[in-house]
Amino acid sequence: MLQEINFDGIVGPSHNYAGLSLGNLAATKNAGGTSYPRAAALQGLAKMRGNMTLGLAQGYLLPLPRPNAGWLDEVAADATTDRALVAGAWSASSMWTANAATVSPAPDTQDGRCHLTVANLVTMPHRSHEWPDTHRQLRLAFADSRHFGVHHPVPMCFGDEGAANHMRLAPSHGQPGLEVFVYGRSGGPFPARQHEQASRIVARRHGLDPARMLFVEQAPEAIAAGAFHNDVVAVANEHVLFTHECAFADPAGTYAAIAAKCPGAQVVEVPASAVSLNEAVRSYLFNAQLVTPPSGEMTLVVPGECKESAPVWTWLQAMLAGNGPIRQVKVVDVRQSMANGGGPACLRLRVVADPTTVDPRFLLDEARADAMEALIAQMWPEQIDPADVGSASLAASIHSARTALLDLLGLGELA
Hints:
This protein has one domain (3-414): 5-stranded Propeller (L-arginine/glycine Amidinotransferase, Chain A), CATH 3.75.10.20. Helix content is 33%, strand content 18%. The model has no long low-confidence stretch (mean pLDDT 97). The longest helix is centred in the C-terminal third of the chain and has 18 residues, at 392-409. α9 links the parallel β10 and β11. The chain is of the alpha/beta class. It starts with a strand and ends in a 6-residue tail after the last helix. The radius of gyration is 20 Å and the shape is globular.
């Protein structure tokens, strides 16, 4: 049976704060700070456990090999003077699997298979070298070609950031839906990372029906405020779009097009008068997981920073007191990820599929969660200071930790 599976990225042992992502205000604000990879990975795992407690199917993707010595060789980096390039080779940013790929479920595609196109992430150098290892991992997890098609990235001249700029609206996950692709044209001082042509290429590759797809421009003011991906200001689940008033360049036109192409869709808009765009970005109210547990009570999984924001928390409580489609709010602690600019939604890739068609080594259960928790507590570095990045001894321990995780999960072919 088709259902939504959230594939969270396990936070890698090289998790550090190098501030490499221009336009990501949290990442640049915390650049040079001490990171805590062990705590980060355990927080992410606790979030996954929480989703399972809600009755949701939960998967995971593995950290990529870091540091990436091959990439350092390609860019001829000097370990002493090219510190940004060294940090780029150590980046654990693959933990944000919302950028791993764009996913079109089988009910939407011409050939009746679920299609995944790996993102090229070319706008940011530290992410641009992720795709080969991500592609290899997705090809393994979704190897059954009767049910899945896994594609290489779109040409590198078209910037593609994956599912972070893609939403889907449908009566239920297993029914045909409307796929909404959000792109940027201008972002003021920051780059607009998602190209319109990249989105259109993905839609054509996946064999989508033109009547059930929509291309929407992200508001330049949202990008300038730090919404480097659309999922920082909007998220969709089944028939609900949860969005900030300033998310799209043409909000009224966007809502009208959604209503025309997806009858029954509901828009829950947070006005700027209640929650400013800056506060929405700071708290990551919209970088939340909007999910439907088996109970049917649509639930918004938000970071703890939302509860600490008076405007955000006041608005959420008023929403729950009303009769809207979102019936529960669940708070999770992902502070280590948040400090690098990634909330609950950044950490997961949504795939609608029958779990029995997925390689079971990528699906979480309580026994695997217990085993991973014990290994992370034992082998992930407790902390990484900026001066540690580039250390040969730390690199060796990071490699050992990742190898141990692959062995634990029976995924040694990803070494």
